[in-house]
Write a structure and sequence with these properties.
By secondary structure, the protein is α/β, with parallel strands linked by helices. The protein is built from 22 helices and 28 strands. The longest helix is centred in the N-terminal third of the chain and has 29 residues, at 11-39.
């Protein structure tokens, strides 16, 4: 608390902060107590772990890297990370993070500075994110598939002073050298014990003398950050800056309390670590001291094999992954024992209602559908019962989130009506890096929007209706692609569908549906038009149906509707 008070500039401001702290104290105590009991954390604490936890709490720091130290003291020999069959304990992981943090600092990447992480899912990715936070630096996570042109933009826009990458990705950096700053090129760190000329092997940082362990430093929270660039399906990607302000941990606790997550879980990371879904749920796993298993890259059968081998209990996935699992032959899926699964969290893209039911019928009621964004954190959660009783829902607001659905005039819409979804919580990003205009455009009276349209039913369930920029206006009528997609997905011969608006001289825009058939299906445009007319009002019925082998998607599973419009 003193850390917060000391940062307040005036006596009046300090008084306000103190009063607000006292007002919220009972809720924080209840949230923390429930988490301790429900997750098993209360019973898992040892004396050394409890002492370290109390040190962190007393400091007032919200730095996420400190939780690794707590678990290193509490359960030093417990597996923290499993990657490619190699197990790293919590004590080993914490020491590696310390060494990397010291190494980054010695190379000028400390407080207020930033470094790019461009690599596939691997142990060093996890360690570097925590090491940057421990050094008070910002970790800028970008796709390992980035082109030289994209790397130049992201490196220069973020102002990063270096990059950590893999030997196989060096050609991207080599091709971009002419447009990268000398400061950036002076810190090209390559994983492994050897490195190309002009670069540094990351292992040399781990081999340097271990730094003296320092106590929690709350002032680092002001500088430490994670910068995640949005996927950039339209225009240039924007860098969402996530700081670690007061109440960050409480926001995480509130979400965990709505789930069956426990300290003894084994969490399987399937999404790319530069993606918010993987980063967010791995962070929740770290809070509880779980064991995390990393997949280099998602493939459906290896996913099932890892669940079977390690007794995986939780995972976070995008709907495309669920779809690919269900596409496996039933005899293949039955080869693996998946009874340990207790929670699969789906997000990052709309979850089709038929897919949710199909998956739960096969694997039990273990599916949770969440809504959130890089900029907002986790906002809503639909539990298995919700998905069965209100198909297509993203659930109800997670405690700590305040949601408004606003019409074009800025007023709140009524239940059942569609509005732009704005959210306010303690986990909102600090803003977009070097883009004050975009930050202002996204904010309204302290609420943040990423441009999603939604409606709420009388029971408080929310439903995503699409992106504001994707809304189709045909003959003056607002048409929401998500509604049409939800109807067409019910057809037994359709595997996937995406709906966009295309220019039309008479109507302004007309609705076009892109269809991926299930294997062996013979459905045609005529059949689908009849199917749609029986279930949709006239302006919502697609005028055109285009059949594709697959839908274009970005690496995180989002359909690239921009590409579909170009078709």
């Amino acid at each position: 608390m003193w850390n917060v008070l000391s940062g307040a500039r005036t006596l009046a401001e300090r008084g306000r902060v103190l009063r607000e702290d006292l007002r919220q104290a009972p809720e924080r105590v209840r949230t923390s107590a429930r988490l301790s009991r429900q997750t098993g954390m209360l019973w898992s604490m040892t004396k050394p772990g409890l002492v370290e936890l109390l040190r962190v709490l007393a400091s007032g720091s919200q730095n996420p890297a400190l939780i690794y130290r707590v678990h290193a003291r509490n359960s030093p020999s417990k597996p923290a990370l499993i990657w490619r069959g190699r197990t790293t304990s919590w004590a080993e992981l914490d020491e590696r993070i310390d060494r990397l943090a010291a190494g980054l600092t010695r190379r000028g990447i400390g407080r207020g500075k930033s470094i790019v992480i461009m690599m596939r899912n691997r142990q060093e990715f996890v360690e570097l994110g925590a090491a940057a936070a421990r050094a008070g630096a910002a970790a800028v996570s970008i796709s390992w598939r980035s082109t030289p042109k994209e790397l130049v933009y992201l490196a220069n826009h973020s102002g990063a002073l270096g990059v950590v990458t893999e030997p196989e990705l060096m050609p991207t950096i080599d091709q971009a050298k002419g447009e990268l700053s000398p400061a950036f090129l002076s810190n090209v760190l390559v994983v492994g014990s050897t490195a190309p000329k002009g670069t540094t092997a990351l292992d040399t940082l781990l081999e340097e003398p271990a730094p003296k362990r320092a106590g929690p430093d709350p002032s680092l929270d002001e500088d430490a950050a994670v910068v995640i660039y949005t996927s950039g399906t339209t225009g240039k990607p924007k860098g969402a800056v996530r700081k670690f302000p007061k109440d960050t941990m409480q926001a995480a606790f509130r979400f965990i309390n709505e789930t069956p997550m426990r300290v003894d879980d084994v969490h399987l990371v399937t999404c790319p670590l530069y993606h918010s879904t993987a980063f967010g749920f791995m962070s929740l796993s770290a809070i509880l001291g779980q064991t995390v298993v990393l997949m280099d890259e998602f493939k459906p059968e290896p996913f099932l094999e890892l669940v079977d081998r390690y007794g995986v209990t939780t995972s976070a996935m995008v709907p495309t992954m669920l779809h690919r699992i269900m596409e496996l032959p039933e005899e293949t899926r039955r080869k693996y024992d998946t009874r340990t699964l207790r929670a699969i969290f789906s997000g990052g893209a709309p979850l089709p209602a038929p897919l949710a039911i199909e998956f739960m019928d096969a694997y039990g009621d273990v599916l949770f559908n969440f809504y959130g964004a890089t900029e907002t954190g986790l906002v809503t959660l639909a539990k298995p019962r919700d998905l069965r009783e209100a198909p297509g829902t993203i659930g109800k607001a997670v405690p700590g989130n305040e949601i408004r659905l606003l019409g074009d005039d800025g007023s709140d819409v009524r239940d059942g009506e569609v509005g732009e979804l704005y959210v306010k919580n303690s986990f909102l990003v600090a803003g977009y890096h070097k883009d004050e205009a975009a930050t202002r455009e996204s904010m309204r009276e302290g609420f943040f929007s990423v441009g999603d349209l939604a409606r709420r039913d009388v029971a408080g369930n929310y439903f995503i209706e699409g992106r504001k920029r994707d809304m189709v206006i045909s003959g003056g009528v607002n048409v929401y692609p998500a509604e049409i997609e939800g109807v067409l997905e019910q057809h037994p011969d359709i595997a996937e569908v995406a709906v966009v608006g295309v220019p039309d001289r008479e109507w302004g825009e007309r609705v076009r549906a892109f269809i991926v058939k299930k294997p062996g299906a013979a459905v045609d445009e005529g059949v689908l038009k009849v199917f749609a007319r029986e279930r949709l009002a006239g302006p919502k019925v697609p005028r055109d149906f285009v059949f594709l082998e697959s839908l274009p998607r970005n690496p995180t599973g989002k359909v690239l509707k921009r590409d579909l419009r170009d078709l």
